[in-house]
Amino acid sequence: MGRESVAVPLDRSLHLSERCNMKIPAGIPRIDDYKTLLTSEDFARIEQYSNRFIQLNRDRLTGYGRKWVADSLHQWSRQWEYPFVFQQVEALVSRTSPRRLRVLDAGSGVSFFPYFLTSTWDALEVTCMDHDKSLAGVYSQIDGNLDESVDFVPGDLRRTPFPDGHFQVIYCISVLEHIGEYERVIEEFQRLLSPGGLLVVTFDISIDGSADIRPKEAQHLLNSLRKAFPVVTQTPDDTLLDAIRDSDILTTQYIAGVDKHLLPWKSPLVSVLSCLRNRRIPRRWGYKNLTCSCHALAKEPCDGSETLEADGNV
Ligand SMILES: C[S@@+](CC[C@H](N)C(=O)[O-])C[C@H]1O[C@@H](n2cnc3c(N)ncnc32)[C@H](O)[C@@H]1O
Fold first, then answer.
1. pLDDT of residue 274
2. 81-120: string of b/e by CB count within 10 Å (b at 16+)?
3. How far is ligand 1, taken at its centre, from the CA of residue 132, in Å?
4. Residue spans of beta strands (DSSP E) within 212-253
5. Short-list 199, 244, 207, CA closest to 224
6. pLDDT tens digit string along 244-277?
7. Cα–Cα distance, 50 to 61 (Å, whole number)
8. What per-residue confidence (pLDDT) applies to 266?
9. Inter-residue contact 305 to 95 (CB < 8 Å)
């Protein structure tokens, strides 16, 4: 395994217009595709926005940074997941040229990403929902500090206050694998999406079974999504169980070998010491081995057409 850093584009001297773009495939990322993405125009644009967002909101993000991380883009899987979601939304916008598109960031935490989307397309109205009520204060501080704004609605994704068919796009990044009752969330997404609407979902898979979510459960989650949303825009044919056996997929073990700063966890030694200090038996030695997977699905249109049903849309 090489020692090159995959945290930033490999050649920072490349100007945006000199970079190529790649279409990000659904499913589990391959290491070569991941490296190519990091040198792409889309990634550079996203990174530029994210870096500025963090610089402008450093103080406002301190508390959230203690809960998870302040710089969410520079995490092993997010470098792939945000561009995947971005490309799916971009494809929908260029296909339908909507005057207005209501978007739900389901289980949003706090990140630059919903702001990046609204700054890219005027037609987008992004609502962020998370059951962590304390995030409301962070959102209102960030909103007051930027030209673009998003709505934050605290709440549980299993039962939301929005009317049927309210959103034309729902994206849900690394959330479902942490919710035991994800079937209820999937039902809620079905209710909330307008006919022809787009659902983009990403989730982690714990290859060694030490974290959320074991491979068999991940396959079950994907099957449930496919059953509820039979119109698949992008998701691979092979099973997740087959794909995780491949040696060239992106994993946290690979990332640990190239740039540990992209992992959200303490080093294995610090984790063991902290377990011993708290009189707990360490569950394992070394970094957890995770991969992630990304899928784009759609709600069936009423009349078989691709038209999104929403006021103000084409
Ligand atoms: C791993 S974080 C991902 C945050 C964000 N999507 C991102 O891209 O960084 C998972 C988020 O899901 C939220 N969450 C978990 N269960 C939830 C539920 N039932 N309803 C709403 N939010 C939930 C958590 O509070 C947390 O912010």
1. 58
2. bbbbbbbbbeebbeebebeebbbbbbbbbbbbbbbbbbbb
3. 8
4. 231-234
5. 199
6. 999 999 999 999 999 999 998 766 665 556 556 6
7. 13
8. 66
9. no
**Cα 130 to middle of ligand 1, angstroms:** 6
HEC string of 76-97? CCHHHHHHHHHHHHHHHHHHHC
* Mutation test residue for ligand 1: of 73, 82, 131, the one with most atoms within 8 Å of CB: 131
pLDDT score for 29? 96
For a ligand 1 pocket test, name from 175, 177, 188, 265 the mutation site with the most ligand atoms within 8 angstroms of its C-beta. Answer: 175
Instruction: Provide DSSP, 1-45.
Output: ------SS-S-TTS-GGG----PPPSBSPBHHHHHHHHTSHHHHH
Task: Return the residue whose CA atom lies nearest to atom 12 of ligand 1.
Answer: 107
Residue 44 has pLDDT above 90, yes or no: yes
Q: Mean pLDDT score of the chain, rounded to an integer? A: 88
Q: CA 114: distance to chain centroid?
A: 11
The amino acid that residue 23 corresponds to is: K
Ligand 1 pocket, mutate which of 50, 112, 130 (most atoms under 8 A from CB): 130
CA 265, chain centre distance (Å):
18
12 vs 280, more confident:
280
Pairing outcome for strands 167-173 and 151-154: unpaired
Predicted confidence (pLDDT) per residue in 147-182, tens digit: 999 999 999 999 999 999 999 999 999 999 999 999
The string of DSSP letters for 157-197 reads: TTS-SPPTT-EEEEEEES-GGG-TTHHHHHHHHHHHEEEEE
Position 230 scores a pLDDT of 86
pLDDT at 53 over 90: yes
Cis peptide preceding 170, ω within 30 of 0: no
Q: Show the domains of the chain with their CATH numbers.
A: 16-298 (3.40.50.150)
Phi-psi region of 286 (alpha: psi -120 to 50; beta: other; left: phi over 0): left
Total number of residues shown for the chain: 314
Residues 95-119 have a mean pLDDT of: 97
User: 11 pLDDT exceeds 90?
Assistant: no
